[in-house]
Specification:
InterPro entries: Gln-synt_C, Gln_synt_N, Gln_synth/guanido_kin_cat_dom, Gln_synth_cat_dom, Gln_synth_gly_rich_site, GS_Type-3, GSIII_N. This is Type-3 glutamine synthetase. The strands form 5 sheets. Strands 10, 11, 12, 13, 14, 15, 16, 21 and 22 form a 9-stranded mixed sheet that branches. Strands 1, 2, 3, 6, 7, 8 and 9 form a 7-stranded mixed sheet that branches. Among the domains are: 157 residues, Creatine Kinase, Chain A, domain 2 (2-Layer Sandwich); 162 residues, Ubiquitin-like (UB roll) (Roll), CATH 3.10.20.70; 133 residues, Four Helix Bundle (Hemerythrin (Met), subunit A). With 757 residues, it is of the alpha+beta class. Strand 4 and strand 5 form a beta hairpin. Helix content is 47%, strand content 14%.
Length: 757
């Protein structure tokens, strides 16, 4: 019986004595090593390369990274040798090209440094072993391309693909088996014909596009202010659940799909709002500390850790980094969390909505643009009303998101997001931007050609646009500066001081495609604004303030529909958004159709060349196939759970009640209670059997469509049938759980999973 097993697991978890595990290192004098001293010790950084390579070789490498030359074989061989020696000195025995296929995770194939040298062909008389890594092996490897998602670009028999070293991201080492290490070489993944089969290639193309578009914009706006490079920078807040691994092993739905397909809420979950920022449970704190130590050694600048709103939910966040490196580090951090959780008897869950009725998990993308001079182009400074560069950049962001909201919608669309978006903790699928009262007043005043208003708010606070203070009139409390914008937790996109926070990405998604979509949208808008500035410049030596203001006013007016300062959860917002003409795709298959529109295809393949036509078509098919597969896996899992666990358990419980009633009847005792419970259970049990049979029939329909139809038609049918079947079957299961004793319920409850800390 399941209950005694669950009880035993819970008792073991409650009495678990933490092992010492990773201990914070100390130096030879016994002093604890500072975090900054650990930072990057397992990274073959550019500083380490400079130490290991001849000056001319390192100089050639830097020229290649800046696009001023190709990486020649001699330079590649020298770097490969230096990297191997550095890695092997630290215990590495293997190397791997580490890449990001379109699966949402990373992939790797390990090869040993060991090679056999045979001298017979050269007239010798022996063979011997050497350790080696050649420049050719560093530059590329050959995984099987047919076994990864290709969206029809590659047939099964066309297996060859290539991973190519991404020189913008440093190599690093990670722990392997038996105390050894593995050298990781960050890479992109392409087909035999050169098509991108991964997430990273697209992201890298988009970073070059937005750098070029921004530089052209700045050259017109500030011709005296030369910028060599502009990079998109991001900070990725990662939310997740940590649950006891023993409880996890007893839930087939969690193991197979990453989310619970059945389960009723306990009487107490997050409604007291006492978990958010609360004391971190000891076993969780140990896990997060382990992650932070490993992350520091890998050069991942984790900054924040805290409890999230739901029980058993947590968040970690790093400081800002260049976009491609930040994505690498985010995916690495997710992997480190898996390993640390396992060592501490926990399981990490990244699904967007692992538990119904409590907060889901997102991956907030804090996005900005920075120059190689260290300037943040979205910094409003003290007086944003006079900062025309900032205002024009803000207009580019607003215009890009307004024009290409459908592309951003595609980038967040997964089967899991359909359960999270629009819930109490997540933004709706309709994209809008929150700027806050102060910035909104700046834009309104500029458009209306009037002075700025001075606001006043209740009692002890006063607001002045262009830098404000909060004075609480309590002597021991210092006066603090107020940000230019509040934080609207209902908005999909919010300006938060000097960056845009995008809150709709799912916790288990790779950020690469989403960041590429942002870069593409803003690049397109920057091109439009640059063209308008050129037209305003004409033959004049430089732009006047009025030239800039006229362009700013134009885009303030154009982008007014995308700005929304209210509650994005309200039902009236859907109607308001529709009246403004804002894009709204209610489900994943309908959102994916945006990739087929002329507007998106032209932008991504012709105007910006971030995708080739075949790569974009492939992306469309992969997204639809993944959606269909997700729903089929969930449906088959739920059908088996109901058939093999829940129905037998309920029937067994009903049988016990019947036996008890017969025994009572045989001695002329009252058996009203037993009969009442049976009468309550039986109708729901019958509905569950009917709904489960309907689910099985629809599974067959979708599988047939998936096999013989198009990816698009299969995804549409899966959404129309399976999505709602899953909800119906679950509703009957959850009602039966509320009527069944714990001892007879065949799997751990929400209370057992979420409230074990």
């Amino acid at each position: 019986m399941a209950y005694p097993i669950r009880k035993e697991i819970m008792l073991k978890s409650a009495s678990k004595i933490e092992d010492k595990g990773n201990q914070w290192p100390r130096n030879e004098k016994g002093r604890a090593v500072y975090s900054s001293e650990l930072f990057g010790e397992n990274v073959f950084s550019f500083k380490q390369m400079a130490r290991s390579l001849p000056k001319s070789t390192f100089s050639n490498f830097l020229k290649q990274r800046r696009g001023k030359s190709k990486l020649d074989q001699i330079t590649a061989d020298a770097i490969a040798h230096a990297a191997r020696v550095w890695a092997m000195d630290r215990g590495a025995t293997h190397f791997t090209h580490w890449f990001q296929p379109q699966t949402g995770t990373t992939a790797e194939k390990h090869d040993a440094f060991l090679v056999m040298v045979n001298t017979y062909m050269q007239g010798g008389d022996e063979s011997f072993a050497l350790d080696a890594l050649s420049g050719s092996q560093l530059l590329q490897s050959e995984p099987d391309a047919s076994s990864f998602p290709t969206g029809g670009m590659r047939s099964t028999f066309e297996a060859r693909g290539y991973t190519i070293w991404d020189t913008s991201s440093p190599m690093f080492i990670q722990e392997g088996p038996n105390g050894t290490m593995v050298l990781y070489i960050p890479s992109v993944f392409i087909s035999y014909n050169g098509e991108a089969l991964d997430e990273k290639t697209i992201l890298l193309r988009s970073t070059e596009v937005i750098s070029k578009a921004t530089k052209e914009f700045l050259e017109i706006l500030e011709p005296h202010h030369r910028v060599g490079q502009v990079t998109s920078t991001i900070g990725l807040e990662q939310e997740f659940f940590l649950v006891d691994r023993g409880m996890y092993t007893l839930r087939n739905d969690l193991k197979i799909t990453g989310r619970t397909l059945v389960g009723k809420l306990p009487p107490r979950h997050q409604q007291l709002e006492d978990h958010y920022f609360g004391k971190i449970p000891a076993r969780v704190l140990k896990t997060l500390s382990d992650v932070e130590m490993d992350a520091l050694k890998l050069g991942i600048p984790l900054k924040t850790r805290h409890n999230e709103a739901s029980p058993a939910q947590f968040e970690i966040a790093p400081v800002f980094e260049e976009a491609s490196l930040a994505v690498d580090h985010n995916l690495l951090t997710m992997d480190l969390l898996h390993k640390a959780a396992y060592r501490n008897g926990l399981k990490v869950l990244y699904h967007s909505k692992p538990f119904k009725g409590v907060n889901g998990s997102g991956k907030h993308v804090n996005w900005s643009l920075s120059t190689d001079r260290g300037e943040n182009l979205l910094d409003p400074t003290v007086r944003p009303e006079n900062n025309y560069r900032f205002l024009l950049m803000l207009m580019a962001v607003l215009k890009g998101i307004y024009d290409y909201a459908s592309l951003l919608r595609v980038a967040i669309a997964t089967s899991g997001s359909e359960h999270r978006l629009g819930a109490a903790e997540a933004p709706p699928a309709i994209t809008s931007i929150f700027l806050g009262d102060q910035l909104s007043e700046v834009l309104n005043a500029l458009e209306e050609r009037r002075p700025l208003k001075n606001f006043s708010v209740p009692q002890f606070q006063s607001i002045r646009v262009g830098g404000t203070l909060v004075d609480l009139k309590v002597t021991p409390l210092p006066t603090i500066p107020r940000d230019l914008a509040d934080r609207n937790r209902t908005s999909p996109v919010a300006f938060t001081g000097d960056k845009l926070e995008f809150r709709a990405l799912g916790a288990n998604q790779s950020p690469s495609f989403f960041v590429a979509a942002i870069n593409a949208a803003v690049s397109a808008a920057l091109k439009e604004i640059t063209a308008d500035l050129k037209a305003a410049l004409g033959s004049k030596p430089k732009l006047t303030a009025e030239d800039k203001l006229s362009v700013i006013r134009k885009y303030i007016n154009i982008t007014r529909p995308i700005r929304f300062e209210g509650d994005s959860y309200s039902s009236s917002w859907v109607e308001t958004a529709a009246s403004r003409g804002l894009f709204n795709a209610p489900d994943c298959p309908s959102s994916y159709l945006s990739l087929k529109t002329h507007k998106i295809k032209t932008l991504l393949t012709y105007t910006l060349r971030i995708f080739t036509p075949s790569e974009l078509e492939s992306r469309f098919h992969i997204l639809n196939e993944r959606y269909t597969n997700d729903l089929l896996i969930e449906s088959n899992t739920l059908y088996s759970i109901v058939s093999q666990q829940i129905l037998p358990a309920i029937c067994s419980y009903r049988s016990k009640l019947s036996s008890s009633a017969l025994a009572l009847m045989s001695i002329s005792a009252d058996f009203f209670t037993e009969k009442l419970i049976i009468d309550r259970i039986s109708p729901t049990l019958r509905k569950l059997v009917e709904a489960n049979d309907r689910l099985a029939a629809h599974i067959s329909e979708v599988e047939a469509e998936h096999k013989s139809g198009t990816a698009e038609s299969a995804a549409e049918k899966a959404r129309r049938l399976l999505y709602f079947d899953l909800l119906e079957v679950r509703s009957h299961c959850d009602l039966l759980e509320s009527m069944t004793p714990d001892v007879d319920w065949p799997m751990p409850s929400y209370a057992e999973i979420l409230l074990t800390f």
